[in-house]
Inverse folding.
């Protein structure tokens, strides 16, 4: 049974992105590949009523994996789990037994199994199920994913490396993600020198791709805990730019761009109507082209139904957030989008970028695949 455990050095480093490319590349090289996320935190209820980690749902759907949900997502940390554990209401041996049994079942069916961790190696320590402990439990070598860089990246790698060492998990390789083109040659030169002290190879240097960080209207539904008022069919529409519009309608009218998300107060009907007028004029002049916009309407006063109906006719995705435009813009700018199984463009881009920048020959040697 060949398995590899993927952990990150921190939150939002790109662990799931890396796993997508790894699984795709391994499927091309082996007759079958399994996937398991032993410990999950964010979960979704599937059609059977079972709660499943959201990444498991993504991988099972996209790669058409046949293993049952119960094995791919054996343990979840719902709200209150850590308190129940510390109060003695959860049996730790039952949890580890469930993880071992699920991993064994999946690994026996496949040539290689990718195990996705939850965050950095210390996540889960309060219940004695951190990533380093789980990797050691499953006797799986660890791939550490870090942000592309040199000094700060190596500092983070060091903390995670020694956590793995403490619990007996072997670090077999490092993958750097979101590497800027301007730093790529320097990183390829110096990071392997730094890793040589641990005898750990650099297995991948994945370039920074802005599109992979681009949120969709579906992401904003989750962020603002609301439902779209119109254009639900464009829930996974991506935008090239996001703009707060609250000034002169004349100025805005001269600067309307396609593929843009507009944030504006719901009471600014002049701005909304200016965008709609531009849309219909453009559609008449260029029937085969779309002025693809999106709207987040803000403020204490919700939009009038008559305005929403006009937006529906244009087919734009729009939602209403009862907050100030400034607060909405701040939340949008600080939001980190996650992968969704209904966003095939982003999944395809992630796989292409990651798979082409991982040295699978070196990976095979490091993991003895």
């Amino acid at each position: 049974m060949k398995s590899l455990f993927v952990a990150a050095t921190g939150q939002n480093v790109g662990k799931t992105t890396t796993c997508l490319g790894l699984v795709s590349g391994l499927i091309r090289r082996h007759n079958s590949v399994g996937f398991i996320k032993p410990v999950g935190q964010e979960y979704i209820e599937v059609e059977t009523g079972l709660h499943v980690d959201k990444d498991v749902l993504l991988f099972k759907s996209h790669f058409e994996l046949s293993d049952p949900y119960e094995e791919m997502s054996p343990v979840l940390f719902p709200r209150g789990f850590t308190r129940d554990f510390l109060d003695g209401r959860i049996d730790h041996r039952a949890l580890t037994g469930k993880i071992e049994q699920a991993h064994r079942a999946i690994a026996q069916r496949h040539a290689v199994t990718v195990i996705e961790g939850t965050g950095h190696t210390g996540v889960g320590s309060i219940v004695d199920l951190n990533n380093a402990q789980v990797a050691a439990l499953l006797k799986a070598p660890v791939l550490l994913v870090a942000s592309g860089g040199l000094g700060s990246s190596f500092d983070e790698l060091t903390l995670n490396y020694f956590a793995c060492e403490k619990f007996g998990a072997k670090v077999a390789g490092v993958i750097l993600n979101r590497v800027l083109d301007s730093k790529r040659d320097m990183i390829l030169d110096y990071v392997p020198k730094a890793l040589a002290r641990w005898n750990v190879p650099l297995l991948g240097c994945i370039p920074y791709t802005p599109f992979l960080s681009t949120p969709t209207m579906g992401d904003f539904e989750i962020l603002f805990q609301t439902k779209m008022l119109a254009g639900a069919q464009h829930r996974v529409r991506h935008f090239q730019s996001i703009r707060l519009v609250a000034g002169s309608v004349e100025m805005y009218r001269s600067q309307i761009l396609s593929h843009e998300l507009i944030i504006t107060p719901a009471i600014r009907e002049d701005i909304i109507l200016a965008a709609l007028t531009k849309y219909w004029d453009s559609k008449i002049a260029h029937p085969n082209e779309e002025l693809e916009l999106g709207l987040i309407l803000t403020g204490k006063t919700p939009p009038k139904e008559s305005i929403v109906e006009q937006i529906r006719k244009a087919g734009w995705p729009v939602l209403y957030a009862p907050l100030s435009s400034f607060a909405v813009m701040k939340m949008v700018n600080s939001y980190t989008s996650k992968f969704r199984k209904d966003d095939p463009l982003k999944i395809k881009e992630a796989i292409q970028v990651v798979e082409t920048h991982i040295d699978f020959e070196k990976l095979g040697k490091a993991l003895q695949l």
